[in-house]
Amino acid sequence: MAERGIVVSYEMIRVWVEKFGAQIAKQVRAARQTPSDKWHLDEVVIVIHGVKHWLWRAMDSNGEVLDILFQSRRNARAARRFIAGLVARRGKPRVIVTNK
């Protein structure tokens, strides 16, 4: 755009995002495939600067990440809330696979 003499500032980009962002996000969501009815839930401990963090991840059988929860402490109630929110947003799966 600079080649053509068009000046693009940070403010112009902010205005474009404000104007077209919701429309683009809607198109992206509509283009997504519906998740399969088999979900895989995984819990991983990650150490960052010597501090343990827990990462919960939900994926469908096609490999699409459905949701992620990252916390600095292990909390069973938060994990149950994570699954309940996922079911509320995506519907109830046929089966949930975990590492028990």
Automatic annotation (TrEMBL):
Transmembrane segments: none
Signal peptide: none
InterPro entries recorded: DDE_dom, IS_Transposase
DDE domain residues: 37-100
One Pfam family hit: DDE_Tnp_IS240
Name of the protein: DDE domain protein
